[in-house]
Amino acid sequence: MNDSIPVDAINRAGRLVGTSTTVGFNHLLEKLKSLAAPEDCFDDDFFRENAGLIFETVNDLKGVPLKVIQVLSLDHEILPESSVSTLSQSHHSVSPLPYSKIWESFVRSFNRSPDEIFETFSEKAQCAASIGQVHKATFNGHDFAVKIKYPGIETTFESDLKYVKPLLSLIGFPRKTAQSFINEISERLHEEADYQFELRRSAEISTACCGNIENVEFAQYYPDVSSNEILTMDWLPGIPLDQFAAAEEDQQIRDQIGQALWDFTLYQIQELQLFHADPNPGNYLVHNGKLQVLDFGCTKQMDKDSFRKQFEPLRPGVLDSEKQLAAALQNLTEDFSSEEHYSIFATVGKEVVEILSRPFRADVFDFGDPDFIQDVFGIHHTFSKDPLLRRGLGFSSSPDAVFLSRTWLGLYRLLARIGARVRVDLPEWMND
Q1: What is the domain count for the chain?
Q2: Count of CB atoms situated within 10 Å of the CB of 431
Q3: Do 402 and 271 have their domain in common?
Q4: Residue where a domain stops, chosen among 168, 187, 206
Q5: Are residues 304 and 287 in contact, defined by beta-carbon separation less than 8 angstroms?
Q6: Beta carbons within 10 angstroms of residue 191's beta carbon
Q7: Which DSSP symbol is given to 314?
Q8: Do residue 180 and residue 306 come from a single domain?
Q9: Degrees, nearest 5: CA angle 271-273-274
Q10: Residues 6+ positions from 282 with CB-CB distance below 8 Å
Q11: Of 261, 67, 228, 233, which is closest to residue 152 (Cα–Cα)?
């Protein structure tokens, strides 16, 4: 457990630069080694070791560095698998701050300690993340989840962003897309650190979805016990989605939960143009056959035209027309001028679209189909082993696409983990 988080720019920059230097030196040694044995250059051990060094640093710093790593750990299409598996610790192994810091936050916000507001308040955090940590409390027989922001964490964002970019390339992230990725991370983090914003977004999305999506539940938030540093909501009693997926559950229940997750995601994107953009399995619980949705700190708003442009390659019929497919893929890019860029899309574009559009070409799709899962991870294998293809992602990723692609591919992975069979009702525009 960390006693505090360093918030002064010089200290944090020193940690990030020091880690970048160490990882960069490892990178240089690997290149020198490749002169003697090219086939052994940049193997899984190399990426795993560097990812481990980076996690140690971001676990201490929290904020921007940790959020970047959390997002990347969900991305099996860009980073090497050995990096992803190591960085996934960022979702379940983050060190919390001690209770004394939490006590100070309550006094600053309410002039009262946690024990003066609640009947019971757990001194041990239930979980910790990039911006804050969660404690459990009770009052009048009701359980609450209380999220407390790390003191001073917002003041670190701008300076940290300057030093995170060099780390990205050292764990296998395409350089061309790094800046748009960092810009999007910055915008989402400022929203996530604004607890009043999350309180409003949670009410907006949950109100819009209630009555329109079956088998989905949301926590109620409590403005009177919330502030810029503290956010109080219902404690939902479900089990984590990962735990549900690993249990011996009836297929009907798996399908029910998977359908709720699919309907919830598609309704937000298609109808609200506002969606929960953090497909971390820790943000979902399952209770009595219902999906419970947590944490609206990371959301993304996108207009209908942008959403349709991103999904056009997956529309039924596009795959059968070389002309339509080429136009749809080209419309996604911000830079499609060079022969190298065209070659990359021509090489893998049709294969990737064929795989990712399968659910849209079925009335009911089985995400537990092992052939589908193998093909999806085959895409990852193709990209992770070929530097040219990884670089190609740099010109195909617009700022809008960064979080939408992670949300959608994250949905596929969650549904595959559940082993759900999902009824696919296409929006009208995809049937035109």
Answers
A1: 2
A2: 9
A3: yes
A4: 187
A5: no
A6: 18
A7: G
A8: no
A9: 115
A10: 91, 92, 127, 240, 241, 242, 294
A11: 228
The 10 Å Cβ neighbour count of residue 102 is 25
Name the phi and psi angles at 87, rounded to 5. -70, -15
The answer to the question of residue 214 being in a domain is no
Tell me the C-alpha distance between 366 and 269, whole Å: 22
Q: How far apart are CA 128 and CA 94, in angstroms?
A: 6
165 and 259 part of one domain: no
- Distance between CA atoms of 354 and 41, rounded to whole angstroms? 32
Tell me whether residue 139 is in a domain. Answer: no
Q: Residue 317 is which amino acid?
A: G
CA distance 417 to 253: 14
Angle between helices 304-311 and 399-418 (to 10 degrees): 60
The whole-angstrom separation of Cα 274 and Cα 300 is 6
Distances (CA, A) of 204 to 177, 199, 276: 31, 9, 11
371 exposure class (CB count in 10 Å sphere: 0-12, 13-18, 19+): exposed
Q: What CA–CA distance (Å, rounded) separates 329 from 157?
A: 34
CB 144 within 8 A of CB 235: yes
| Domain that includes residue 16, residue range | 9-94+156-187
Name the pTM for this structure: 0.80
Confirm whether 178 is domain-assigned: yes
Q: CA 292, 296, 300, 303: dihedral to nearest 10 degrees?
A: 70
Task: Say if strands 290-293 and 216-218 run parallel, antiparallel, or are unpaired.
Answer: parallel
Per residue of the chain (432 residues), what is the pLDDT tens digit? 557 788 888 888 888 877 766 665 455 444 433 433 444 445 566 667 777 788 888 888 888 888 887 777 765 555 666 666 666 766 667 889 999 999 999 999 999 999 999 999 999 999 888 889 999 999 999 999 999 999 999 989 888 888 777 767 665 666 666 777 777 778 778 888 899 988 998 889 999 998 899 999 999 999 999 999 999 999 999 999 989 999 999 999 999 999 999 999 999 988 888 888 777 788 899 999 999 998 887 788 888 888 888 888 888 888 888 888 878 877 766 554 556 555 655 566 778 888 889 999 999 999 999 999 888 777 655 655 555 555 444 434 555 666 677 788 889 989 999 999 999 988 877 876
